[in-house]
Amino acid sequence: MKNYRILLFLSVFTFIFSCKEDKKATPIEPETVVVSRPLPSWNEGKTKNDILAFVKNVTTEGSSGFVPVENRIATFDNDGTLWSEQPAYFQLFFALDKIKLMAEDHPEWKSTEPFKSVLADDMEGIMKSGEKGLVQLMMTSHANTTAEEFEESVKNWMKTAKHPRFNQPYNTVVYQPMQELLDYLKAHGFKNFIVSGGGIDFMRAWAPETYGIPSNQIIGSSINAKFDYTDGNASIIKMPELDFNDDKAGKPVGIYQHIGKKPIFAAGNSDGDLQMLQYTDSNTYPSFQLYVHHTDAEREWAYDRESHIGQFNIGLDEAIAKGWTLVDMKNDWKTIFSFQE
Amino acid sequence: MKNYRILLFLSVFTFIFSCKEDKKATPIEPETVVVSRPLPSWNEGKTKNDILAFVKNVTTEGSSGFVPVENRIATFDNDGTLWSEQPAYFQLFFALDKIKLMAEDHPEWKSTEPFKSVLADDMEGIMKSGEKGLVQLMMTSHANTTAEEFEESVKNWMKTAKHPRFNQPYNTVVYQPMQELLDYLKAHGFKNFIVSGGGIDFMRAWAPETYGIPSNQIIGSSINAKFDYTDGNASIIKMPELDFNDDKAGKPVGIYQHIGKKPIFAAGNSDGDLQMLQYTDSNTYPSFQLYVHHTDAEREWAYDRESHIGQFNIGLDEAIAKGWTLVDMKNDWKTIFSFQE
Fold it and tell me: Which chain A residues contact residue B278 at CB under 8 A?
C-alpha cells in the first residue's frame, strides 16, 4: 500500500540534488524525413535485429512461433521506459505544481506544513513532514475532485509545465526509439498496453495522444473512486485512499485484472518491472523481454543498481542470467528525444 | 462487498421453483440467410428507428451530434441483457457443477455442509447453510486456483453443460438482436465493453468468442489475485477475497477505472444497471440509454418489478420518466435465440 506513495516522494531527494542541472534548451524541429525501414532511431546491431526477428517469427503464418493476433499483447512500463523519470517522477512535479495552484483557495497553507514548504520550494522542509505529510500532498493534489476536473488539471499542466533540464513540455521527454517500437508492434497486430506504477488517471490525461494508446489500454496505480449522483448530476469522485499499487508483483496482477491475457512482449527499465517480465517469460507462446538500461549520462541519464529512482539491480542480474534483451541507450539508440535531433 | 455473493446465490431460490420447467429442446440451425439491412432480428418500429437514428447522428461527420471515433464507447450489462439470467444466473450453475466435479478429490464433502447438499442436489439444504455456506461454495469454486486452471474449468463446463429449460449450451442462450446490435455498433467505430455484475474471469473464458469482444473489454466483479513465482514458474493465483463488486454504483466506477472514458451508449436490464445509464446520460456528447424489458414469457421470460433476479423497478420508473429506450422483447424482437428460429 505504501510503496506507491513512498516511491513517488522518495524522488524528491533526487530532485533536491539535481534540479540545479544545466538546462539544454533545444527547439523542437519538425520531423520531415520519411523512412520506410523499421525502427529508424535504433542503431543497427543485435538488439534491433533480435526485436525484428521476434516480430517476424510471431507474425509470420506458418512460422514455428506464430501467435494469433488476439494473443499479441505487449505491455510497457512508462517511467524510465517510455519517458524519462529523472530528476524525479514527472507526476511528482505535477503534484507540487498543483498544490501551488490550489494554494490560492487555501490561505491557511502559508503557515501549515507540508504545504508551507511546497509554496516556499523548500524540499528539505517537505521531506521533514515525513510520510504523513507526503501522503497528504499526494492525496490533496489527486483526490477529492471529480474525474473530469482532475483530467483537466493534468491537461493544463502538460500544456504549460517544462522539464527542469530540457526546458521542454514533459510529454516530449519521451524516447523516440520506443515510440517507433510501439508503432512497429501495433502495425504488426500487437495491442500495446502501458503498465505503470504511476497514476492511471494522471497518465490517461496525456498518454493516449502522446503514445497512440487508448485510455482503456493504460493500467497504473489507482486511488479509489465513487459514483456520485446528486440533483441529477452524475460524476465520479476521486477518493483519498489507495486502491491498487501497480508495481513489482502488482504488475502481473494488474495485467491479469485489466487484460485477462498474458503478454508475449514486455518492456521495463527497473526492478519494479521484473515480475511483469517473469510473467511474460512464462507464456507458452514465444515471448520477448526487454529492459531499457540507462547508460547515457550525456543525452539522458546513466543509472542502475544504486539509483533511488528506477533502481535496476536484481532485474539487471536476472536479465543477464536469462539472456533477456538489454537496450544500451547510449549505443543502441541513434536518437533519444526528438528535440535533440 | 456482500452483494455480489448474495445476488448470485439468491438466485438459488428461483432455481428451486423453476428447474422443473418443461424443456423445449430445439436443434441449432446454422445461420444461412445473408442480410444487408441492419439489425435484421429487430422488428420495424420506434425502438429500432431510434437506435439507427442515434448511430447515424453520432457517426456522420458534420452532423450536430458527431462523436469522434475514440469517444464511441458502448457498455453492455451481460446477465439479462446479452444472455438470459433465468432460472438463475448461469454462473451459479457453473459454481454448483464445479463443486460436483471437485468432489472426487474431497471425500469429506459427502458429510460436510454446504457441499453435502450440493452433491445431493438439495437446494433447500444449501440455502440453510446461510450466507457463510454460500460464500464458501462461491470461493471454493472460483478461488485457490491458478488463473489458467480456472479458465480451463469454465471452458470445459461451457462445452458440456446445458441450460435446464432450452437444453442448449449456455453460450447459445444469447439474444440474437443484441449480438446484431454489438456488431452494428462495432461496424460504426464503437468500442464495445461488457460491464457486468458477474465474475470477470468467468466471462473472459467464453465471452470473447461468443460476443466478439476482447478480454480486456470485459469488466466484471472480481476476487483478488496474487502473483506467485516459485522455482521459476510464474502464475496468478485467484484468492478467496472479494476485490470489486461491479454492480449498481460500482458499474460507473468499474467503467472509470477500466476504460477511463464515459460511454455514449449503455444497455442494461435491471436496477443494477441504473447508475451506469445515469452516468452515460451525463455525457456531454449525445448518448443513448437502452433497457431490455423482459416481456416474453413464451420465448424467454417475463419479469420486472418483483423479480428476485434482475429486478427492474426503480430503473423502469426512471427509464419512463427520462424517455430512455425500453426494448419490449416480445414486440421488438423478431427472434430471441438463434436456436428458436
Answer: 229, 234
Per-residue pLDDT of chain A (341 residues; tens, 9 = 90+): 344 544 454 444 334 333 333 344 444 444 444 446 899 999 999 999 999 999 999 999 999 999 999 999 999 999 999 999 999 999 999 999 999 999 999 999 999 999 999 999 998 898 898 889 988 999 999 999 999 999 999 999 999 999 999 999 999 999 999 999 999 999 999 999 999 999 999 999 999 999 999 999 999 999 999 999 999 999 999 999 999 999 999 999 999 999 999 999 999 999 999 999 999 999 999 999 999 999 999 999 999 999 999 999 999 999 999 999 999 999 999 999 999 87
Contact A12, A88 (CB under 8 A): yes
For domain A41-87+171-341, give its CATH number from 3.40.1110.10, 1.10.3210.10, 3.30.1330.60, 3.40.50.1000.
3.40.50.1000
Contact assignment for B226 to A278 by CB distance below 8 Å: no
Q: Does B235 touch chain A (CB under 8 A)?
A: yes
Distance CA B325, CA B50 (A): 8
| Interchain CB distance below 8 Å, B249 and A226 | yes
A304, A316 contact by CB (below 8 A): yes
Taking an 8 Å cut-off on Cβ atoms, the answer to whether A243 and B257 are in contact is yes
Contact (Cβ atoms closer than 8 angstroms) between residue A151 and residue A6:
no
Q: Among A204, A251, A257, whose Cβ lies nearest the Cβ of B260?
A: A204
Alpha carbons A61 and A68: distance in angstroms, whole number: 9
Give which of B283, B54, B74 is closest to B192, Cα–Cα: B74
Instruction: Select the residue of A217, A226, A282 nearest B253 (Cβ to Cβ).
Output: A226
Shortest distance, CA B159 to any CA of chain A (angstroms): 21
Global pTM value: 0.91
Specify the fold of B3-16+42-340. Answer: Rossmann fold (3.40.50)
